[in-house]
Amino acid sequence: MNDTEDPIAWLLRQVDEDERLAQAAQIRTEPPWSREPWPESPLPEADGVVDRNGDGIVVARGSCIGEHIVNWDPARVLAECEAKRRVAEAHCPVVASSRVPHGRACLICHWPSDWPCQTLKLLAQPYAGREGFPGELRVEKPNGAPLIASRISPQ
Q: Global pTM?
């Protein structure tokens, strides 16, 4: 993020990247994805993640890993991207006016002195480990530690 970029613009760029990756995955496979035993795998206790046509996507060792991958099917990620955009749009700030005399405010959360609002800060936490994460979106635990110490970065 550069010094003049709005933190919500930064957040929405991260959502755009999630959407781009999900769309690319969806083009190459047929959602929905499912988890099935994969007896041909050299890995013991392997599960395969397959698309609607039964085409293999990935082999995972252990059912919890396969189930996790299935849970992040591109269709779900795309739905989450849309939901995140709508939440961000709903919580966009109102600039100084008679109702908001000092700076920007979220009229939904009614926090005229604290923008970005808590909702937007929490929405941004999954991206806390990405380069350029805006400090004003950081949420801390009472002990001062980051709420989420994510190390996920886009490819």
A: 0.76
